Structures are given as structure tokens and as C-alpha cells.
Amino acid sequence: MSDLSIRADGRLAHQLRPLRFQNHIAPYAAGSTLIEWGNTRVICGVTIEESVPRWMKEQKVTGGWLTAEYSMLPYSTLDRKARDISKGRLDGRSSEIQRLIGRSIRAAIDLEKVGARTICVDCDVLQADGGTRTAAITGAFVALSLAMKKLITEKKLVENPIIKPVAAVSVGIVNGQPLLDLCYTEDAAAAVDMNLVMNSAGEFIELQGSGEEATFTETQLASLLTLGKGGIRELLVAQQNAIA
User: Fold this and answer.
1) CATH class for the domain made up of 19-243
2) Which tens digits make up the pLDDT trace of 7-16?
3) Which of 63, 75, 88, 183 has its CA 20 to 30 Å from the CA of residue 20?
4) Cβ(137)–Cβ(197) under 8 Å?
5) What are the distances in angstroms from CA 65 to CA 33, 34, 53, 117?
6) CA distance 141 to 9
7) How far apart (Å, rounded) are the C-alpha atoms in residues 144 and 141?
8) Alpha-carbon gap, residue 1 to 122, rounded angstroms
9) In whole numbers, what is the pLDDT of the chain averaged over residues?
10) What whole-number distance in Å separates Cα of residue 24 and Cα of residue 139?
């Protein structure tokens, strides 16, 4: 498969799936968006609490805090996915992804400027077709930006605490070919699977990459990073259009 070969869904190797943001989907949230990315759909909502966690008070840490939660709704996959609460614990995958979302979105904001507030980011997957964590991060930044705009409008903040926009995308090697933005069937068939989280300065926040029963070369890694950076640039433009 060359860069000009057509993938199962008609895309070229370097093409993102169609992307759309539907803002203010959750009216009671300070900021919210439904990100539709191919057949993956995630609702991202941000709420603000006028207090900080107890550990911050005890350790006399100044500024605010940002925390994230991620869940896949029972009907988001072909086979019903039981809610974590029904199992009495958060599954390992959800726990890992929500920590990733928290780290990624904290990199986008100056928490000192937020004041003694907790920003809660909730990402709920309505429909999963690959890339739910990258969609959650990309959508969460839009929801966060809308929430900060609202706080400024309400004169609760003097200046915008956003430092740099943040977005995330998946890349992988399928049948020997580096591909951008894997859908579920590609993800399942990938020999190498990677998620990139980057900011608008082209700096990496997180790189998660692994060979699925395979190894990969430095040259392949470089080609994946090139694909990923191109995808991130497109995502950052789409985010700014959505926020505007």
C-alpha cells in the first residue's frame, strides 16, 4: 500500500477521518462539545467547582486543579460494554485513558491563573470506532476553551489561562504501511500502534507507542511522527474554528 493507495474507508495514508464539533451539547456544563471523528463520537464536558482538592490545601499548593474522567457508554460498542460501576471498579484501560486526558489537558492551561478552582473534564464515548482517547483529548481542549471563555465573560477570570492548544492523533503501521488516524479495523490489524499528543508549538506532551507482537525501526518511527505531526496541525486548525 503506497501513500496513494485507498484505505478501506476511501482515505489516503495521510488523511484524517472527517471531523466535526457540535458545541454546547450539554447546557449545564461550563463548556461542552460533541466531537464526531469518523464513526467515533465523544461528548466532552467541562464543569467548574469553586474549591480545590483537600491535598492541595494540606500541602499549601496555590492555584487550581484539573481532573479528568473517561467512560465508554454501554451502547458505544457492537457488544454491550458493562458500566464500570456495575463491576465495582474502574477498568484498567479507562483508568489509564483518563489519566492521559488529565495530563494532556493540564499541559494546555496555567492552573495558577485559574485560582482556587477545580476543572472537571468528562469524556463519554457514545460510539467507538478507533481513536477514542485521541478524540477525547482533542474534544476536551475545545470544551475547556469554551469554559474559560464563559468564566471570562462572567468576570470570574481576568485573563485567559490557556497556554497553548493541545490535540492528539493515532498513527500506526498496517500491512507494512504507515497510516494516520486509524479506524477500529486498522487499529486491530496494526503491527505498530502509536498515539501522539502535541501542542501548537510542535512540542510533544505524550508519545504512546508499541509494537503489537512486532518491532519497528527508527525509519518507521520517523515516518509515523511525520504523519502524526501533519495530522495534529490539521486538528489544531479545526479546534480553533470550532472555538471561534
Assistant:
1) alpha beta
2) 878 899 999 9
3) 75
4) yes
5) 21, 24, 8, 6
6) 27
7) 5
8) 38
9) 92
10) 12
Q: 118-127 and 65-72: which strand pairing?
A: parallel
| Amino acid identity for residue 69 in this structure | E
User: pLDDT: is 165 or 215 the higher one?
Assistant: 165
- Name the nearest CA neighbour of 168 among 201, 142, 206, 130: 206
36 vs 19: CA distance, rounded Å = 6
pLDDT band at 3 (very low <50, low <70, confident <90, very high): low
Q: Which residue's C-alpha cell is 457508554?
A: 73
- Residues forming beta bridges with residue 48, ordered by sequence position: 119
Per-residue pLDDT band at 1 (split at 50, 70, 90): very low
Contact 42/122 with Cβ under 8 angstroms?
Answer: no
Q: In what order do the strands lie in the sheet with 166-174?
A: 177-180, 166-174, 192-199, 204-211
Which of 218, 236, 90 lies closest to 165, judged by CA?
236
Residues in the chain: 244
Q: How far apart are CA 184 and CA 101, in angstroms?
A: 20
Quick one: cell of 233? 496541525
State how far the Cα of 212 lies from the Cα of 93, in Å rounded to an integer. Answer: 16
Task: Give Cα 135 distance to the centre of its chain.
Answer: 5
Residue 54 in grid coordinates: 483537600
The per-residue pLDDT for range 119-135, each reduced to its tens digit, is 999 999 999 999 999 99
**Model pLDDT for residues 32-89, shown as the tens digit of each residue:** 999 999 999 999 999 999 999 999 999 999 999 999 999 988 889 888 887 777 777 7
